[in-house]
Fold:
Amino acid sequence: MRGFSFGMSSASRLDPVPLRSRSAGGCPEASPALATRAFPIVRGDRRSVADLLDLASDVADRCHSAAPDVDFEGAFPEREFGWLAEAGLLSAPLRRDIGGLGLGSEPGGTLPLLRVLKRIGRGNLSVGRLYEGHVNALLLIQQFGTPEQVEGYAADARLGRRFAVWNTEAKDGIHFEPSGRGRYRMRGSKTFASGAGHVERPIVNGALPDGGWQMCVVATERAGSAVIDPSSWRPLGMRASASTRIDYSGVEVEASDLLGRPGDYRREPAFSGGAIRFAAVQLGGAEALFEATRGHLKATGRGDDPYQRARLGEMAIAVEGGNLWLSGAAASADEPGADPAAVVAYANMVRTAIASICENVLGWAERSVGAQGLLRPHPIERIGRDLTLYLRQPGPDAALAGVGRHVLESPLDAERLWPDVG
Ligand SMILES: Cc1cc2nc3c(=O)[nH]c(=O)nc-3n(C[C@H](O)[C@H](O)[C@H](O)COP(=O)(O)OP(=O)(O)OC[C@H]3O[C@@H](n4cnc5c(N)ncnc54)[C@H](O)[C@@H]3O)c2cc1C
Structure:
């Protein structure tokens, strides 16, 4: 594996930009001003993938210790994003020629990316979810942006600005309506917008007048009149992901904010293939449950019991099985000249297998630890809530059925259906 190098430009302060937020009763509240941050810069520093993974582990450990502090509605992991920035992880998904580490954006970069995502998920699933959105946005920008957009947003990422992708919506979804002079007026809302009010550069998708599905980077500087509804995020878990509804009605954007062409967001295999990233974060949650169960059995002296040992054995097999799925996922995503349909089917297998691993590990953890694991402040209580919600990703039945359809239609022998993981 090639060595990665860090290269960040000089840090600057970010201007606080207010977004209005609405209380449950519909009254305007104080604006959640964006933090001003400044990060240390590392120039000409070459680090190996192993170094990067160590940094991610360190961030994950800190996130794990701090997770109870941000386990409440209205929270956002501000400190945790500072740690990600200090470790160079916010710019790491950029190509090396624009100051990143090629994580997920250069050949051979998918496996390190999945390992980093798993580690961050192990530390705190909400941070993992937010970081995965940040990574996804930077990959979309590098894939579909103009050279000017790539350069500008890469500079933002190097300065520690946060990105996201907000695609999900309800019936009152986003429309971009031409308002003259190359501008568009937005109408409608996004739901499940992770980090709303805290992310400076979200990609917000919506419909053009002809129905085309368009990506648009709506910088917070443009979105002063957007309204966040905190009452829309009263979840079982994943509280710190701040995945609220945000209403953009009346916000105006420029043609230069539009990213790519209509339909680019759903282009395969990147669209469905991206599921391997959330699966990696989810697997981090399963690993955290495994660790918490091991720790509990050691601390309580219940590890000699054969049933407990058998369950721990099952958990170890399941988590390591997930790691092997990540290796397969990376081999499939990075295979030169791969059949896009096979890449999508493999990603669907990965997300389905890892979801099942996570559900099994959660059940084993709860049975091994018992009621103690369902009482705060036991970490299994929190991680279990987070994982239960984060496992709910779009179209799980369709993902599994897609695997079945692919293998039925493929003319290849079973042995040659998938990439050789080696
Ligand atoms: C913590 C968290 C953060 C999130 N952050 C973001 C974000 O930042 N940006 C963003 O865009 N989204 C985000 N999302 C939304 C996410 O991507 C999914 O859209 C959402 O979680 C879908 O979950 P669901 O269970 O409702 O899925 P669904 O797809 O509705 O699945 C529910 C069930 O219905 C079935 N089903 C689905 N479609 C059909 C159909 N047509 N007919 C019959 N059955 C069907 C499924 O197989 C499943 O059994 C977030 C979600 C969570 C939980």
